[in-house]
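Researcher: Good morning. I'm working through a list of sequences from a screen, and I'd like to move beyond sequence-only analysis. For each chain I'm collecting a predicted structure so we can compare shapes side by side. This is the next one on the list. No need for commentary yet; just the structure.
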Amino acid sequence: MPYQSLKGLKGKLIAVEGPDGVGRSTHIELIQEWLEVQGYGVLTTGWTRSELMSKTIASAKQGNILDPWSYSLLYATDFADRLEHQIIPALRSGFVVLADRYVYTAFARNTIRGCDRQWIRDVFGFAIVPDLVCYLRIDVDTLALRVIETKGMNYWESGMDMRLGADLYDSFKKYQGLIIEEFDKIAEEFGFEAGTSMTGEMNTALRRAGCPAIDGARPAGTIGAVRAVGGHAPGKGIRAGVDRDAPAAARTGIGQARIAVGGDRARAGQRSNRQPDAAACAAAAVV
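Model: Good morning. C-alpha cells for this chain:
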C-alpha cells in the first residue's frame, strides 16, 4: 500500500497461524485477556472479517464457482481492507493487534491448490511484517479427532473442492496433511518455528514471548519489501512451549517468531503507562 505510511506504528502485531481446528481462537482469547489485564489496548482481527469482502467471499464459497487464483484475489482484498481500516490504525494508536491467521494461511492454502508460490507471495507482498508469529502445529490424526469432538468437519476445511477423498473424513485428513506440510515449509522459509498445540504449554510460551516482543521496537517495512532484499533468514522463536532469545541480526527476518530485545520501548495500548515488568512475565510463565 504505497499510500499508507508505516511510520509511527507504536503498537505490536502478533499473528497466530495453524491448520483449521487447531485452537487458534482459544489461544487468542486467552492472550487477549492476559494483555488487557496487563493494561494494553487489544484489537483482534481474523480471516474474511472485513466489512467490504466478508459477504462476497461467503457467497463465492457457497457457489464454489471460482478458481484458486480468483479466491486468492478475494482474500487479498479482504486482507487489504482490514490492514487499511483495522490493523494499521490500531498499531498507530498503540494497540496490540492479535491476528487469527495472517498471510501465511493464503500461502499454504493456495500453494497446495496449484498457485505459484512466488505469485501468491507477490499478491500479499504489501502485508506488514508481524512482531511475532506463533505457528500452532499438530499431527493430522490428533487434529481430525479434535475437530470431530468439537465443531465437526465441513466442505472447505476438508478440501472437498480438491476431490482428495470420497468422504469428508478421508478428504479432511489428506487436505489438512498437505496444509501442515506446507505450513512446515513456510515456517522454515520465514523463520518462525512450530509450537505445541496444547493450550496450556503454548499459551505460556506466547505470554513469555509477548513480554519482550511488545517491549521491543517493531520491524520496519512490508513482507514484499523485506523479501526483495533477501531478509527472510530463519531465526529463533517458539518451539514446544519454550521461548528462546533471538539475536538482533535474525530479527530482520520475515514473520519469524521473534522475541525482540532492546529497542524502542514505546507503550502499546492506552490503558496503562507501564510495560509488563519482569515479575509479570515470570508470573505469566507459571499460569
